[in-house]
Amino acid sequence: MSRRHQRRAARDERRADPLPPPADEICVLCRRPIPAEARSSRHHLTPRLKGGTHLGTVRLHQLCHSAIHARFTEAELARHLAEPEALRAAPELAGFLHWVGSKPPGFHAPTRAAKSRTGKWR
Length: 122
What we know:
- By secondary structure, the protein is mainly α.
- The chain has helices at residues 3-16, 62-71, 74-80, 84-89, 91-100; strands spanning 40-44, 57-61.
- Helix content is 39%, strand content 8%.
- A two-stranded antiparallel ribbon has the order 1-2.
- The mean pLDDT is 78.
């Protein structure tokens, strides 16, 4: 097997067997624990499209991550909301955070785009 094929096989093996998140991890947005069986994802604090590829990421519930991207554009996230504290303080997320705070840690629901969100081109 050539070296290129060995690298490709190793990369595919890593993708096929992702590590589960640690059991004691806390969602930085809603402050609820993230159980191993819950849907979760990594959020780039500065969007990758705005130069955040190699900057910090945080683990969030998938529901919380979807809520962020349903309400804010990449430009808004890069300019004003590149810190977890700024996200929690955003008035657009206040109602969501109050609602999700009463849900169990593994809760998931579909997310719709907010009507107040501006287009991606701004």
